[in-house]
């Protein structure tokens, strides 16, 4: 990732009491905030959220595709 | 001095002076005016510079702030009060987010809500995101804070409209909350309750089924017992 780029990840989390899995986490991800968000996803599992965050960090570290 | 001046940060950024839109404002100056619009009081130059140009040295950030101020035209400069240490929007500048926040707090407060607040205009004001295409950290934080405030306010507004028998407007308010966060169960529950209050059991059940299908598709979950209880007596049409 070029040094001048910035990634941005926003996690908005809340609880739905009474649900079998009460966590809700809405994620918005960007590996280059200047281009806006790449995708959004809502998840209900801590491990799934962690997996997405880890994947995003790896994407930031990965070299850009050759032109 | 023209007093008909407004800064808009709900939706896209807009500046108007004398009721006329101002175009071509440099990006740095837009960011400055938007930042000041989100503050109800003066802000120190140091805080502004550090927030708007966080990756620059303090010296460069201060220089960027001076540049943003200097690139305002003479007329635009009358919108800001600048002192040696602080900057603020002039008191007469109308800012949409400030009015919208006050509306939301009145709806959520414990005192009786003014009749004028239970309105289509209120639904409209609470349905707009704050600077949705801005990704500065400070803008994103403000946008998230506004999102939470307006969602809760829309919930309450829908309930108040339902209590007033204004079911069409109540539906609009509830749907606005659903659109803002489709997997937030409270908004769906309120929508169902609007239809039930109206006596429209078929629509209530349809609304429940749509939420149920969405929740299943996105998260593999069933709705909570709380919302299931709202429709348990309704037979599938």
Give a short summary of the structure.
The complex is a heterodimer of chains A (67) and B (237). Chain A has one helix spanning 46-61; strands spanning 8-15, 23-30, 39-43.
Report on the architecture of this protein:
By secondary structure, chain A is of the alpha+beta class. In chain A, 24% of the residues lie in helices and 31% in strands. Chain A is built from one helix and three strands. Chain A has one helix at residues 46-61; strands spanning 8-15, 23-30, 39-43. The longest helix of chain A has 16 residues, at 46-61. Chain A is elongated, with a radius of gyration of 14 Å. The model of chain A has no long low-confidence stretch (mean pLDDT 89). With 237 residues, chain B is α+β, with helices and mostly antiparallel strands. Chain B has eleven helices and seven strands. In chain B, the strands form two sheets. In chain B, strands 3-2-1-7 form a four-stranded mixed β-sheet. In chain B, a hairpin with a 5-residue loop joins β1 and β2. The model of chain B has no long low-confidence stretch (mean pLDDT 94). The A-B interface holds A 8, 10, 12, 14, 16-21, 24, 26, 30, 33-34, 36, 42-44 and B 133, 135, 140, 144, 147, 181, 183-185, 218-219, 221-226.
Q: Keyphrases for this structure?
A:
heterodimer, A: 67 residues, alpha+beta, three-stranded antiparallel sheet, 3 strands, elongated, B: 237 residues, Arc Repressor Mutant, subunit A, Serine Threonine Protein Phosphatase 5, Tetratricopeptide repeat, four-stranded mixed sheet, 11 helices, 9% strand
């Amino acid at each position: 990732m070029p040094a001048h780029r910035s990634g941005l990840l926003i996690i908005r989390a809340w609880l739905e009491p009474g649900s079998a899995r009460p966590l809700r986490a809405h994620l918005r991800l960007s590996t280059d905030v200047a281009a806006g968000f790449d995708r959004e996803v809502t998840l209900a599992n801590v491990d799934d959220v962690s997996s997405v965050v880890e994947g995003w960090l790896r994407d930031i570290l990965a070299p850009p595709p050759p032109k | 001095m023209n007093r008909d001046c407004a800064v808009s940060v709900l939706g896209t950024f807009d500046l108007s002076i004398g009721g006329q839109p101002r175009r071509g404002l440099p990006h740095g100056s837009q960011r400055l005016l938007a930042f000041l619009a989100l503050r109800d009081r003066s802000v120190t130059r140091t805080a502004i510079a550090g927030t708007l140009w966080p990756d620059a040295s303090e010296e460069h950030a201060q220089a960027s702030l001076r540049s943003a101020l200097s690139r305002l035209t003479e007329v635009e400069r009358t919108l800001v009060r600048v002192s040696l240490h602080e900057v603020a929007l002039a008191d007469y500048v109308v800012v949409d987010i400030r009015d919208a926040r006050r509306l939301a707090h009145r709806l959520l407060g414990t005192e009786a809500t003014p009749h004028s607040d239970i309105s289509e205009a209120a639904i409209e004001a609470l349905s707009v995101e704050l600077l949705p295409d801005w990704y500065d950290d400070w803008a994103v934080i403000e946008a998230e804070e506004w999102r939470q405030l307006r969602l809760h306010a829309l919930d309450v507004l829908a309930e108040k409209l339902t209590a007033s028998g204004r079911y069409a407007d109540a539906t609009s308010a509830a749907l606005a909350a659903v659109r803002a966060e489709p997997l937030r169960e409270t908004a769906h529950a309120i929508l169902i309750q609007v239809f039930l209050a109206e006596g429209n059991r078929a629509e209530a059940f349809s609304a429940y089924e749509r939420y149920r299908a969405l929740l299943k598709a996105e998260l593999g979950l069933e709705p909570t017992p709380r919302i299931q209880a709202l429709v348990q007596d309704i037979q599938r049409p």
